[in-house]
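Question (not urgent): is this output format expected?
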Amino acid sequence: MKITLELIRDHIQEYEGIISCSSGDWFRGWYQAAIYSPKSEYEEEFLLFGYGEEFPDLTEGRGLVCVGKPSGQILSQNDVLYFPKADSLGEVYLAIQRVFLKFGKWEGRIQEEFQKNPSLENMFQLTSDLLENSMFIHDENFYLLTSVNEMPGQMKWEYDSVQGAYVLPLDILNDFKVNQDYLDTMTTVGPSMFPSDTFGYRILYQNLWHNGQYRGRICVNELKRTIYPSDYYLLDVFSQMVLESFQLGEIAGYKQNFSLSKFLVRLIENEAIDTKTLNGVLMQYGWTAKDEYFCACLFPEERDIHTNSVQYFCTRISDELPYTCAFIYENAIVILVNSTLSDLTIPNFRNEIGVMQRESLMKAGISSVCSDLSQFYYMYRQAICALETGRKKQEAFWSYCFDDYQMDYILRNALQEFPAEMLCCKEIFWLREYDVDHISELSKTLKIYLENDRNLARTAEILDIHRSTLLYRIGRIKDITRLDMEESKVRFRLWLSYYLLAESGGQL
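Got this back:
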């Protein structure tokens, strides 16, 4: 590995080195150090070492380590580490060589472990010994992959008995959602420092990105010794090793399992999937296309998306609710429930996810039950429409089922193309005109009469009138409208007219 000036300075502290970096590249490194001689030529990967006054002012763009302070021109034109109080050139050079040897040996041992026994724990233990602090790594679902050199006072993980692994406690994850410092960490590239305000100690961390996707995070807890500036570089080098091991699929337990979700996404995007392929996918789960299913869509807040807790909820749902598949699609959590195998009815499902919804302030839309998974696109759309329609009528609800808002959805779509007056029975307006002219309530009477399935006693009770008065009003309604109330289609059209008027804000 390349050795930076910061690594040399931080690991030869007895000489109190000072760095002057003209290139601005704090991660610039060199493969070996050579004692400077004015008669020799050196490749750029050589770090040149000598007395400060030995280097000519024409030296430019090099990496230098000096005993004694060099000239101002040398400092302004090169990346320089100098030891103003050091006396012995030989002792300092030996110390530099020990730094190169120490970190070259560390890199070699990591590679050796990786080749013979690919284990995250071994890789982290070797690195933790070097950094002298506790370290851990978690994946994008906030599941702990390994933790080494644990120390008193550091954050505790919660055991998930279903997954058989440790996971970030939900209360901490919820705190992260409102912690701006943490939200800012979700987009960083390269090593960064998390302040001590949250846990009482600083954390040096690096996000793991692969093809633009967040894959997890490596953290170094500042509990034993102060984190050196060079630890940033070491963490960056180590993170690349870890990413390489993930990409090669060598780390046990980190291989991506075959996922039903990618086929469901294809169905959502209305891509044709032949029956044989779909059945082949479902067989791996013990499902069939003709099982009964329903779809739910949960919509997290923006802060959940930024903290990556959406993926955490997907994993939690799949773990806690058997025979479900939860995944992210367009910043929503989409859940497919196999109600045949899970025995989960829609009411039971709403109860199961209710606590999680309230904790995370997520509303949900739920489709009707369907026994043909090839229709998943429509199930997904039903869940979306249920939420959109339901929130307009009952904003305080946490979840909305399409079965409860089916008529509302149909009528709202009709009203988008036509005004209510163009869809309603004209006889309704005759009654309204009669009521205005005669100060009566025939229109209201007909509405309540229809809503109560023409039950005379119930209608009279609601209107607070005598039965004979109600019979008189019904007679007048028949005379004015000239409609046969015994016809079911007539009654339905009248009821639909009242509903359309109410939805459009029309007055009865």
